[in-house]
Amino acid sequence: MHAWPASDVPALPGKGRDLRIHDTATGGPVTVDPGPVARIYVCGITPYDATHIGHAATYNAFDLVQRVWLDTQRQIQYVQNVTDIDDPLLERAARDGEDWTGLAERETALFREDMTALRMLPPQHYIGAVEAIPGIVPLVERLCESGAAYVLDGDVYFSVEADPHFGEVSGLDAEAMRLLSAERGGDPERPGKKNPLDPMLWMAAREGEPDWDGGSLGRGRPGWHIECVAIALDHLGMGFDVQGGGSDLAFPHHEMGASHAQALTGEYPFAKAYVHAGMVALDGAKMSKSKGNLVFVSTLRRAGVDPAAIRLSLLAHHYRADWEWTDQVLDEAVARLARWRAAVSRPDGPAAQDLVEEVREALSNDLDAPAALAAVDRWAALQESTGGTDEGAPGVVSRTVDALLGVAL
Q: pTM of the entire structure?
C-alpha cells in the first residue's frame, strides 16, 4: 500500500533540541534519544468516516515529532498501518450496502488526500492489515507453540498472563481494564476464556464474512492488536522509540500489542515511549464514529477553508489536551494565518533568530505547539507595530513555521 507525497521540509540554521515527551507508561516526561535513526509507529485509521478532526489532531501530533527529529538532523523510520479489515468496517459496509473492500479503498484514498493537504509527513511504510496477514499467521502460531495462546471454539486467544509486564503501558487496574475492554472491541464476558481480558489473536471464519488461509490456525482473520505488532516488528524491531496514537488506544490496543511482542520475543520493552494524543469533542461530546458527531477535513476543504488554517486550529491546542471543535476555533486560526502571512510578506522585519530558538524550545518541551504559536504571534505583532530592518527575517520566519509547524505561509 502506498502512502502520500511528502512536502519539502526547509533546513533551518543551527540544530534542534532533543525531544522530551510525556510517556503514558511512566506517567511523566522522558527524553527520547533515538540515535542517528529515529523509529516511530503510529496506529492508522480503520477506513470509514475518514478523515475527521480527531484523526487530524492525532496525526498532527506525530507529524510534529517527526519535524523535531528532522531538525536534530536525524533520519526517521516511520510506520503506519491501515486496519482495512475489522468488525466496524464490515458493519459499516453492511449498513450502507457496500462492498467492504471498496469502502476501505475509497476512505483510505480520501485520508491520503487530506494528509497531503494538511502537509503531514508520510510514513516510509504504510501497511494494510490485509497485506500483513502472511506475516501475522506465523506469529500467532509461535504464540500457540510457546503456550502464550490457546484455542477456544476455533478462535485463538492470547493469554495476558504470558507477559509479566502486562498492565505497565496503561497503568490501569483489572476492573478498569475489564470495563474498557468491553467498550473497545474486547469480549470479557465470553465463557471459557482463561482471563476475561485475554484478546483474540485469530478469529475463525464466520459465515458471510471474509477470511484468509491461516495455516495451522485454519481459515479466519487476525485480531486487531497482533496486526500492528506484526507490522512494527517487521519494519522497526523491538525497542523502537515511540508508539503513538490517540489516548483511547492506550488500553486495550497498545497494552495488548506490547504484551504480544514481549511474549513473542522475550525482550522488553516493545517501545521506549508510549505517546498519546487527546480527544476532540463537538457539541459537548467526544467526536465519535458511533455518535456521528464528526467534522471532516474534506468537508472543510470543499467549503474553501485553507488547509493551513485547519492545521493552525489543531496546533492551537496542546496535543495531550482534550478540547472542543467550534466555529470560533477555526475563525481564530483563519485570522492568525492572515496575520502571519501579512507579516512575512514585507521586505524586512524584526530579527528572527531568537524566534527560531523559541519555537525549537517549545516543541522539544512535550510538543508545546501553543507556546510555539505564541512566539510567532509576538514576532508578527512586532512586525506590524514597529517593523524592522532585517531583510532576511521574514524568510527565516516563513521557513521556521514551515519546517517545524508544517504551515506554509
A: 0.96
